[in-house]
Fold:
Amino acid sequence: MTDQGAVQLDRLTIEIATLGGMLAQALLVGAAVALPVCAHLAGAPVRLLLPMHWPVILAGLVFGWRGGLLVGLLAPGASYLLSGYPLPPVLVQMSLELATYGGIAGLMRERLRANGFVSVAAALIAGRLVFAGSSLVLMGATGSTLSYLGAALAPGLIAGVLQVFALPPLGGLWIRASQRGSGGRTTGQ
Structure:
């Protein structure tokens, strides 16, 4: 006897090439633009909260590596065009960092079938390494660059821990809700 209302959970991410998937990814890019603007306007500590990072990592968990990579690549440029942030000296590094976050979170979840917590932790480590490496390449390995890296990376540790614990359950809820609404059509291939 089978339960007709049960949702098949063998697929770990949602199909990105559907109209709903594309709209949701566009909304995640919008959230990655709006959250930092709201944080700046509220006077919140943006370097502590990392508001642009949350929607990008969530995109990777929900839509896999392609969706995470796409949202991560588009978010900093869209944010710059609409708000002037991130500033041009770090725009390239942030674009590479966020693309890495989304891509690795999605790759770990979709292809390697890692749990969400491990996927987010691996994405954060890889993204920070890409940010540091690209900063050293683009800015040079001077004392001021190393000071900048310390000031840029250390405050985000708190947000990183919160992301590891908050984003996987949120992504799981999103996927389960989508599966219920679509009859289980997701991708894990």
